[in-house]
Fold:
Amino acid sequence: MLILALDAALAGCSAAVLADGAVCARRAMATDRGHAAALPPMVEAVLAEARVRATDLAAVAAVVGPGGFTGLRAALALAEGLALGAGVPLIGVTTGEALAAAVPASVRARRVVWTVIDNRRGQFVLERFAPGAAVPEGDPVVHAEAALPRETRAVAVAEHDGDRAAPRRARRRCAVVRQPPAGRGGRGPGGCAAAGRGNPATRRASALCRATLGPAAGRAMTPDAAAAPDIHAIVHAAAIAPALAALHALAFPASQTWGPDAIGLMFRMPGAFGFWRPAEGFVLARVAADESEILTLAVVPAARRHGVGAGLMAAAMVQAGARGAAAMVLEVAESNAPALALYHGLGFAMAGRRRRYYETGEDALVLRRGLG
Structure:
C-alpha cells in the first residue's frame, strides 16, 4: 500500500511516501511561513524518488493539528486536491499521534508516551498515550510549564533534536526519542510526522516527565440561547461536510474554497467546533488553552446583511467562552471592508498585522476580542 503523507502543523513542513508502512522517500524543511509554496515541490520530489505517480496512491494523509492554522490550511488544501485527483481517501492524523508514532514500538509497548508541543506562550499542549496505544486517551490538554506536576513513573518522550534545554535529571527519568530537525541536508532523516518521523519543533520536552494529567473531559457542543434562530451546532461534521463545502464555494473565490474532505479534517482539529444555518452559512472555530480562533466564517452572498454572520459569530463566541476561552482572534484581509465592519460591530479590535499573508500578497489584519 502506498501512502503520501504531508505535515505543516508547526515550525516546518514535510512530505513522505510510505510503501507498506516503510518510508521510502521524504523531504523536510524548517520554516515558519511559506508552507503553501514549499509543499508542492516536496510532493513532486518524493513521488519522483519513490517512482510513484499520484494515481498509484492508496491514500493521502495529513496532520490536522494542534499547530499553526496557516500551515495546516496549506497542507490540508494540497492533500485534499491530491486525494480528489487520485480518487483515494484523505486521512487525518493529529500532531500528537504523529509524534507518538515516531517512538520505537519496543518503547511504546511498555511505557506511557506523552507528546508535547510548545505553543510559545509559556504553555504546552500535552497528549497521553497508554502503553501500546496508537491514539491518545483523550483530547489534548494545555498547561503552563510551572503548573505541571511531577511524573511518578517512567514515560517516553519524542524530543526535537534541536532542543538542548532538557535538564539532566529529566532525561534520567525518561526514554528520550530524539527527533532530527526538519530540513537537515534537505532530506532525511527528518521526514513527515504523519509518516512516523517528526519534524515539529517540540520544545522543552522534559516537561512531560513531570506530568500526571489525565485525559481531558469532552464538552458538548450545544447551541446557546443567544444564537439566532435556525442556527445549529455542527455535531456530525462528516454527514454534512458536502453541504458545508457547497456553502464555502458560494462564499469564497474558487482558489480559496474548501472541499468536503478538507472540512471534515478541520473538524478533527483538537478543540474544533462549529455552527451553521442551512443554505446560508457556517462558522468553524477552535479553542486552544484560553484563546479561541475563528478558522472560517462563510456566508453566501444572498444571505449577507441579514444578520446571519453576526448570529453565527455570536454562537461561536458563546461556545468558546463555555469551553474556557478568555478571548477570540481571527484574521481578515485588509481590503475586506464588509467583514471588517461586521467584526468591528461585534467588538473586535486590531491586534496585529501579518504581512503578505495571502497568496495575492495582501496583508491580513489580526483582530481580537475578549469574551469576559
